[in-house]
Sequence to fold (347 residues):
Amino acid sequence: MTLQLDPDTHVLGIETSCDETGAAVVAGGRHILSNAVATQDDLHTVFGGVVPEIASRRHTEVITLITDKALQEADTSLEQIGLIAVTQGPGLIGSLLVGVSAAKAIAACYGLPLVAVNHLEAHVISNFIALPGEQPPASDLFPTVCLLASGGHTSLALMHRLGSYELLGETRDDAAGEALDKAARLLELGYPGGPAIEQAAAGGDPAAIDLPRPYIADSHDFSFAGLKTALARYVQANAPETTEDISNLAASFQQAVVDTLIRNLSATAREYQAKQVIMAGGVAANRLLRSNLTQLGDSLGVPVACPAPQLCTDNAAMVAAAGYFVAQRTGASSLDMDVFSSLPLSQ
Ligand code: KG4
Ligand code: ZN
Fold:
């Protein structure tokens, strides 16, 4: 049974799928009233990646504080909330359980409906949150081709409308963000690797070293493992000695990742005669990728969209916004809902 919501229903979103603890209040699925995020980068940087046990412990410590912060910043009390939306997966089980347990407790105490949100759909829907001065995309922008590039996923999906996702391709090995994280670890740039590579690449020569642009014939799939290995081999044979060397390696790697993503996105958009091309996920915060998307839109003659950088990386506003649409599509979830480490975008 679907859930009827007002155009102004305040949704409390909770996100704890990986190492970001997020809580947000979004009105009517489109207007962000608050978006509180506590990152754990400082805890994981020494390990060069997320340590699941540390992540879930920190979520437990801060979930209440972050939820209170989101409500305060939105000037909203729990009595004014009409729906709780929480990430159900994909993600780290221990991390997901913290957010889902908090959401269930609030829903039970305040007699509120609860809706389970797919983290991947939340990333996509972050494109449909109205930002000040912007209008939501009109329905004549479908079919839309969407590139979702994060630390755990790199997928291409065809959308016929909001909520309809046809998975066209995904990575066969590493995700784009994972490849950037591994390259940053190799270059000793810290975690998360994407922003570190982007920063180190500034002023570097993107053509300094010759790296492959992995391509899988007759497929929309991606592969980044070979690219990562090519960088590792190069570094083994030519250890970087100066900041300039590191900068050139970071710029060359970033360029190869962006070229690979854009080439596949471009071919897919042409094949399906997309009326709009959008991106989502943490990697979509990358400035080089964003400027290449703009150029792609110009060459295809179609509008492009990409969420603001703080809405590309994990956050709860996207979960609240997605929850508003999902609850009206599928109805409320039961209080005994489970969490899932893997969950496809299209079900
Ligand atoms: O969506 P997200 O926050 O979490 C997942 O759902 O995985 O994505 C995190 C990934 C990490 O691999 C991180 O290195 C990458 O997104 N990332 C970036 C940038 N900011 C985050 N990659 C490239 N450039 C960035 N500015
Ligand atoms: Zn994510």
Summary: The radius of gyration is 20 Å. The chain has a mean pLDDT of 94. Residues 285 and 309 are 4 Å apart (CA to CA).
